[in-house]
From TrEMBL:
Source species, domain of life: Eukaryota
Subcellular location: Nucleus; Chromosome, Centromere, Kinetochore
Keywords on record: Cell cycle, Cell division, Centromere, Chromosome, Coiled coil, Kinetochore, Mitosis, Nucleus
Family: Belongs to the SPC24 family.
GO CC annotations on file: Ndc80 complex; nucleus
Subunit structure: Component of the NDC80 complex.
GO biological process assignments: cell division; chromosome segregation
Gene Ontology MF annotations: microtubule binding
Coiled-coil zones: 1-132
Annotated source species: Python bivittatus (Burmese python)
Protein name: Kinetochore protein Spc24
Keyword Nucleus recorded: yes
Stated role: Acts as a component of the essential kinetochore-associated NDC80 complex, which is required for chromosome segregation and spindle checkpoint activity. Required for kinetochore integrity and the organization of stable microtubule binding sites in the outer plate of the kinetochore. The NDC80 complex synergistically enhances the affinity of the SKA1 complex for microtubules and may allow the NDC80 complex to track depolymerizing microtubules.
Length: 197
């Protein structure tokens, strides 16, 4: 209760002081002055709020523009990346085709070189065969001139058949190489040749 009494007494003193101020005429002037300052502060606050709202609007418009530009740049970047990937794929495919062509060209060159070598070998073999054939023809003719024997080439490989045209009479030759030695056959044939030339 004592605390309540003290508070009431304090309030009475404040009330008395307020009454003195109000009766002195200064309170009204102070109140008017304070109200005028408060109005100015409220006007400034309202102006500041308007300016702040305007700045926020402008900031939001700028953010939207920046976001749109960023979105446009991202889209352009995606398109550029897709073009780059497509170009890289085309380059890889071109490189693979080029590599395949190079491999095929190398293989074809090797085949061509092999065919050329085979052709050269065949030409050389044909030339050698022609030389051998010419030589064989010459030798056969020479043998015939010396020994006058016509050979029968239609017989079996183990048989030696032919006809010897000697100076007096034609004589038939029929030897089996499996039953006679090569030395015997050679001696027999040389004995048919006329040595008086």
């Amino acid at each position: 209760m004592a605390a309540l009494r003290e508070r009431i007494e304090d309030m009475e003193e404040v009330s008395k002081e307020l009454l003195k101020l109000m009766t002195g005429g200064k309170a009204m002037d102070m109140l008017k002055h304070n109200l005028a300052q408060q109005e100015q502060m409220i006007d400034k606050l309202l102006d500041t709020q308007k300016t702040t709202k305007q700045l926020i609007r402008e900031l939001m418009i700028t953010e939207e523009k920046v976001a749109q530009r960023l979105s446009d740049r991202e889209e352009e970047l995606k398109v550029s990346i897709q073009k780059l990937q497509k170009t890289e794929e085309e380059l890889l495919q071109a490189n693979e085709k080029d590599e395949n062509l190079r491999i095929n060209t190398n293989e074809l060159r090797k085949q061509l070189e092999t065919l050329r070598e085979e052709s050269r070998q065949q030409q050389q073999n044909a030339a050698e065969e022609a030389d051998r054939s010419t030589s064989a023809t010459y030798l056969v003719h020479l043998y015939y001139q010396i020994c006058h024997i016509d050979w029968d080439y239609s017989c079996e490989p183990t048989l030696i058949k032919g006809t010897h045209y000697g100076p007096d009479i034609a004589q038939s030759i029929n030897l089996d190489s499996s039953q006679h030695s090569p030395c015997f056959i050679s001696d027999y044939l040389w004995n048919l040749v006329n040595t008086s030339w």
